[in-house]
Predict the structure.
Amino acid sequence: MAAIELAPWIDATGEGGLRNSMVEYPGNGVKTAFDFNFSGGYLNQSDVKAYIYDTVSGSTAAITTVFAGPNTLSIVPAPSATKIVVIYRDTQKTVPLVDFKTGAVIDEINLDTATKQSIFVAAEMADRFDAINASSADAIERSFTALTTANTALANSAAATVTADGAEDAAAAAVSTANAANANAAAAVITANGIDGKAQAALDASAAAVITADAAEDAATAATSTANGIDAKAQSALDTANAAATQVAGAVSTANAASAAVGGKMDKSANLADVADKPAARTNLTVYSIAEVDSIIPAGMVMASAFTGDVAGWVICDGRAIPRTGVGARLFAALSTFYGVGDGSTTFNVPNYTGLFLRMTGGNAAGLGVLQASDNLAHIHGVTDPKHTHVVNDPPHDHGLGFNASGPVAGGGGFQGAQNAAVTARTAASTTGVTLQTAATGISINSSGGAESRPVNKAVVYRIKL
């Protein structure tokens, strides 16, 4: 059976299956642009429809389609990780888009439109064959139940009437027919990956067969309880069973024809595992495998970005501790505990670049991962040196005079000595009293700068690849 989130798309025109006209994306809370590439494109933008399936509640919500490009829908806000976006094509199926009149000019545009409508409708119905197969199998199973009950009724009423005997033979033939139908239906389930517009009629016929088979089962049960008078009821049960077998055979025949018409398509259940050349397919779709992405962006690469918040596959460089296994296994293999041991056993620390400038190793830089303290390049400051003076205090002072003389000395305000007398004179020691007063130089060193040393900058967020 088809996945539960595809039910609204399947119900759009019937039941469900392949991907000729449908694409689904899991949400991640970030992605808002969703591309689609239907087989053959689409006729009108109104044929492109979408809805969101909630994996938690099991509910669906239709989306008003907003085209961001010919094959891109814009869905805002971004669907979360619990949502699945389903985009599908639903071409007009009730009336033809082109109605040719007798004598009208048949041009390329009208022919293309009519042809594409037929092809698109067939492809969309082919995508829904999965549920039809299940319904056919259910109808066959119910037919077997009805036929078994009918056989029991016929056995009990064999002695009642000749008609009951005939019913038993016919019922046996119905069993054979139903067995053949079951085998054909099983083959159709294996080989048919899609079905055209005829499948809808087969589905309707199968549903009618189920209803008829249920009625046959009820009638046959009643016949068993009244075997002695079962004549007319057994005949009715036989007729009903034959009709059910006939309708099932018709459904199988239609399914076989549909299988032959759409044979060769990829098996939906393989989920693209049956693509012959996967690298070439990825190249055509311009997508990378997980291994290719990991080889292009190795674990431990640091990226600066102009936005905050978490990004899948990356973690902010704020020194946080993350698991050594699981999502952090590749980064732990690259860094080990170089930037911190975490809890010492199950976690380790990523680098902490909060408020820091990053620089390449070498030159005046420290070693890898080593925090280098703030410093300034040696430089010269300007000096302001105004002129200044010192005050000198110089009070008057004198020196005392002392002398020694030989020979007579006369007073009278001086001294006189004998001729050729020897005289020795000297001055007494005395301080000058001169002092210099202190004075401020007035010299000042000019300051410059702010609260930190930094170049011209703008803040970014650093993340490291897991």
The CA atoms of residues 391 and 437 lie 5 Å apart. The longest helix spans residues 231-261. The chain is about 35% helix and 15% strand.
